[in-house]
Amino acid sequence: xxxxxxxxxxxxxxxxxxxxxxxxxxxxxxxxxxxxxxxxxxxxxxxxxxxxxxxxxxxxxxxxxxxxxxxxxxxxxxxxxxxxxxxxxxxxxxxxxxxxxxxxxxxxxxxxxxxxxxxxxxxxxxxxxxxxxxxxxxxxxxxxxxxxxxxxxxxxxxxxxxxxxxxxxxxxxxxxxxxxxxxxxxxxxxxxxxxxxxxxxxxxxxxxxxxxxxxxxxxxxxxxxxxxxxxxxxxxxxxxxxxxxxxxxxxxxxxxxxxxxxxxxxxxxxxxxxxxxxxxxxxx
Amino acid sequence: xxxxxxxxxxxxxxxxxxxxxxxxxxxxxxxxxxxxxxxxxxxxxxxxxxxxxxxxxxxxxxxxxxxxxxxxxxxxxxxxxxxxxxxxxxxxxxxxxxxxxxxxxxxxxxxxxxxxxxxxxxxxxxxxxxxxxxxxxxxxxxxxxxxxxxxxxxxxxxxxxxxxxxxxxxxxxxxxxxxxxxxxxxxxxxxxxxxxxxxxxxxxxxxxxxxxxxxxxxxxxxxxxxxxxxxxxxxxxxxxxxxxxxxxxxxxxxxxxxxxxxxxxxxxxxxxxxxxxxxxxxxxxxxxxxxxxxxxxxxxxxxxxxxxxxxxxxxxxxxxxxxxxxxxxxxxxxxxxxxxxxxxxxxxxxxxxxxxxxxxxxxxxxxxxxxxxxxxxxxxxxxxxxxxxxxxxxxxxxxxxxxxxxxxxxxxxxxxxxxxxxxxxxxxxxxxxxxxxxxxxxxxxxxxxxxxxxxxxxxxxxxxxxxxxxxxxxxxxxxxxxxxxxxxxxxxxxxxxxxxxxxxxxxxxxxxxxxxxxxxxxxxxxxxxxxxxxxxxxxxxxxxxxxxxxxxxxxxxxxxxxxxxxxxxxxxx
Lengths: 284, 573
Prior knowledge:
- The structure holds two protein chains of two kinds.
- Chain A has one domain (6-280).
- Helices cover 65% and strands 2% of the residues of chain A.
- Chain A has helices spanning 6-9, 21-24, 27-43, 49-63, 68-73, 79-91, 112-138, 141-152, 159-192, 204-235, 254-275; strands at 103-105, 108-110.
- In chain A, strands 1-2 form a two-stranded antiparallel ribbon.
- The radius of gyration of chain A is 24 Å and the shape is flat.
- The two termini of chain A are 44 Å apart.
- In chain A, 24% of the residues are buried.
- In chain B, the strands form four sheets. In chain B, strands 6-7-8-3-9-10 form a six-stranded mixed β-sheet, with helices on both faces.
- Chain B has helices spanning 44-51, 75-79, 98-108, 113-126, 142-154, 172-187, 199-203, 224-227, 241-249, 262-272, 339-346, 371-377, 394-404, 409-422, 427-430, 440-452, 470-485, 497-503, 521-527, 539-546, 556-572; strands at 4-11, 21-28, 33-37, 59-64, 67-68, 82-85, 160-164, 191-195, 207-212, 215-220, 294-305, 313-324, 328-332, 354-359, 378-381, 458-462, 489-493, 506-511, 514-520.
- Chains A and B meet through helix 9 and helix 10 of A and helix 2, helix 3, helix 4, helix 12 and strand 15 of B.
């Protein structure tokens, strides 16, 4: 019966304040590192790279002072879906097999290739999830938007474009709790007028029909919110495309350079061993 | 030279025939304190948008600090000198962290980082927000959000604050804090322009601007409330409580009818009456209602939010409460004190984590309980219910509730007709009226009708009159009192201590999830210090307290009786 508690059901990575090296890194570096490491995870073969990557990220988790278990807890709600996908992959998707099947269940058989593929799927999912959660745990939204702004700078003709892009990121995050609360409010109002949100029994078709009276006020509320926000921003001298400055300017320093160097060496080592020495076989 | 000048300004919103403002001319000097009053839809908000150049006049010119607002190149100049604070505090917050939001304006001015940091620190300090600088903005209370909005404007270095009904969402403590802050700023030379529905508030301003249906009725001083007392209603206003009190005291205290400020009233009463503290007779307020059977009962109810998350919030702690049929109960407390959770628990929208609950003979915790049916017997009118209207026509929206209960055809029409009549909207005139074509007050009534159409046995109301102009607010309050007289049980959350006294003689006060007071409304103000609970004394008690009356009068009736009695006796001697 926690249907209405929408805000708490959103399990986007939550920032946890800290003083670790990871917390203090330059935001642009953090975003680049996230992207590079994600690429690495996606091209890693099952052995030996993927476990190494996982170990590496676990080390980073340690370094940030977070607990591995807490960060991975967010996977809970996705696990059932993941299991279903794994079963489908193992039994129903035909592949080119070079080995006889290990197990037969009527018309379905499980081969070595199926197992490798499923293991890789799980491995990549957990590694990526851990990486992303770690990133949002040590990076504030304003750091994300600021980092993106710096990275976008070469693209915009003026600095203004990257400013606007970073503002878009901030406002997007700002609207998540707003819309969640608004939806909660409207759902409750509907329920108290006899809609069957959050009752012990609700049929599917009835449920779908119920969303119409919910969507109309939610859309209106969202538009009204957006309109006031525009006015409030304009009243505070915001003009699209104009040069802005920043409350905190992040300075690049020694530890950033060292971390970048380590990251690049790591990237070269992994890609080199993967594509030049072909360690880990040809499965992608 | 005038700071703000309107020269024959008219403005219509695109797609609307009726102009929002027509032929407005006035000028305001720097450093003044101006109150703008008028009914819902009289053009007050449009006025603020014209001053800050958010909209440009169709005809005429608006000049602020020597610059014309219709030219885009002047906007930066104007907006750094006149800052606008909006009604709903949460809608004007841009960033996700407090200090970053305060920095938004200075960032737009492309100031130096060091300069921005300095300004942010100062403005947060001024608004007593420094300890919260790194808090997430959506975790703030309404009062804190409103102060953050002010801080964001002050950080831009403005010398003029325009507040668009900025106090309507605040509880008494928050409102007092805002008032003190504004008084302080005004004494430091700031120009303050306040749009307000509170007549007491408007009475305290130096200048008064009255709008009615887009026209400027008067630009003068708050003396207008005294001079045109008979015409206030035609402008959707009403005399302030102090004025009505003065009026009633005038036979015994000549001159009291011409007083607009509380301190002046106290001074006048002190000067003209040697009050005998022992003799004043105070009668219990209101008639005692014969209590019906118990229809709601809570025993040791607790409820937490986000129990599994990183920071669980205990919204209700061990609350026990019972309600009898036919009662009218008022609920007060600061934002986040658990009032809303309590109301939603009574409506079975939220179920308790622990404790026992019985609503109208049913136990919502029982899985066999039909919550949908139970909820329709306990009508809940949420804050700003007009925002939840979703049908195109009024009649359809009112019919939604009964329809969900399976009522059809003629019976349904009768329900809708009855509900609309109960709230004073004519069935024939309003059933096919588009929801969008109604005024704020009418929408609120239609939303109330939507709940009444389900024929609830209990009505829960969350700040039913917030944001309405004085006349609509009075009107709605009268409707609620009629409903109570007809036998409906009422539970009303309110931020106005005066309203709490008028509508009920039983009061519940919440603080930090606990029910800290359950008893007589008048006794509460006599026996406790309301400031501890984020509340305020009612006007009559403040005056009575200043005059050292004992027992403390709480309602205007009691005060008049107390003063009238002692005065007459003094005259006899």
